[in-house]
Amino acid sequence: MFYKIYLENNELIIQTFFLKEKIAIDSIDDIIIFYNRSFNKHKLFTYFNKPVQYELTRKSWFYQMLFQIFLVFNTEKFRIYRVYENEIITLMFSLLKPYLPTLVETRDLDLDNSFIWMTEDEGGHFKQTKLVYSREGLGLKRVMLKHKILMQR
Fold first, then answer.
1. Which of 56, 86, 126, 133 lies 20 to 30 A from 63 at CA?
2. Whether the Cβ atoms of residue 18 and residue 27 lie closer than 8 Å to each other
3. 8 A C-beta contact, residue 109 and residue 33
4. Structure confidence by residue, pLDDT tens digits, 42-94
5. What's the first-to-final CA gap in the chain, in angstroms?
6. Are 90 and 105 a contacting pair, CB within 8 Å?
7. SS3 of residue 60 by DSSP
8. Cβ atoms 12, 92 nearer than 8 A
9. 140 in Cβ contact with 119 (< 8 Å)
10. How confident is the model at residue 137 (pLDDT cuts 50, 70, 90)?
11. Helix residue spans in the chain (DSSP H)
12. What are the counts of helices (DSSP H) followed by strands (DSSP E) for the chain?
């Protein structure tokens, strides 16, 4: 999918052919990146403390109808789970870095070798996964518990 990503009024804008997602930069809580079994792509789980705002970019009746259906079925306004190409991730992180100083830069992630990533945190071993940002300074295991990706025994 084609994404246009830019900053506007302290918001990260992710725009597709008919939808614009507006994310308040100060609402970004956590970002986890995962290896995605396809060439040159990775999965990002991004969590927010304010809901993502959506706008329709095309005004035809057909797109307005699709937009209303999307709004009804989109129950996850506080997170985005999505696969992006590496170039889009690099652009997104470079735009966010001045606002999120602890964000890991993509050159430090070694995206080309993500299939061999191993993160050890609080006794847990997480394959092909890295925490790239946590507002609260949590480790990967704590972030996964917080967002119920990982369940506590």
1. 86
2. no
3. yes
4. 999 999 999 999 999 988 999 999 999 999 999 899 999 999 999 999 999 99
5. 38
6. no
7. coil
8. yes
9. yes
10. very high
11. 61-73, 86-96, 106-109, 140-146
12. 4, 10
As beta bridge partners, residue 131 has: 32
Backbone φ and ψ of 127, nearest 5°: -80, 140
Burial, 60: exposed, middle or buried (Cβ in 10 Å; 0-12, 13-18, 19+)? exposed
Instruction: Spell out the residues 6+ positions from residue 98 whose beta carbon is closer than 8 angstroms to its own.
Output: none
Q: Copy the structure tokens of residue 40.
A: 């040159």
SS3 of residue 121 by DSSP? strand
pLDDT tens per residue, range 106-133: 888 888 888 899 999 988 899 999 999 9
The C-alpha R_g of the chain, in whole angstroms, comes to 16
Sole residue written with tokens 């008919």: 18
Tokens of 2: 């084609």
CA atoms within 13 A on the CB side of 134: 15
Is residue 122 within a helix (H) or strand (E), and if so which, with residue range? none
Which are the contacts of 13, defined by CB distance < 8 A and separation ≥ 6? Answer: 4, 5, 6, 7, 20, 21, 22, 23
